[in-house]
């Protein structure tokens, strides 16, 4: 059976001086360092047999995808299934103002951290990304594709693929800025998962809004 690889690439550092939870808000673009991260990811993937590049509709993901697609002479096509997770506190600074946990008006949003109750469920995120992965695998069977998206959807997809619980400590996600989580398939069957951090040299001083760190 043919071997196919689908690379899930997280976007680079975002220009976010207010340090808010930007979520699905439009217009948030890569910082200068984030652009350098994107180029490092593109250089890492340059030798690969990439035949398709798909991206979240959000600007930061599209900007991360651009140098990858350019190296391989491919268009960047949007896939809405790759969008960031929905979150009730989008646009707020977590722990400040209207997003404070100690504000009784917010308690209903923190009722079930296992779902999570403040936003799109982990199960729904994993399901839509897995659907996008399967579409890409069928499209490029025997070759490779890149999907550029966001930390939480990538991480819960990996947890699901590995048969692990989707409930997790956000501080222990192995999905840093411009990291690459590669799903290796033999035919339609997942054969393994690899992980790389081609932009690691730029992590010191970088702002990672979701607080993820190496597992």
Automatic annotation (TrEMBL):
What is the organism of origin for this protein? Brachybacterium endophyticum
The record ties this protein, via InterPro entries, to:
His_Pase_superF_clade-1, His_PPase_superfam, PGM_Phosphatase
The UniProt entry, under Gene3D superfamilies, shows:
Phosphoglycerate mutase-like
Q: Name one GO molecular function term.
A: phosphatase activity
Cellular component per GO? cytoplasm
Q: Which Pfam families match?
A: His_Phos_1
What is this protein's name? Histidine phosphatase family protein
List, alphabetically, the CDD domains matched.
HP_PGM_like
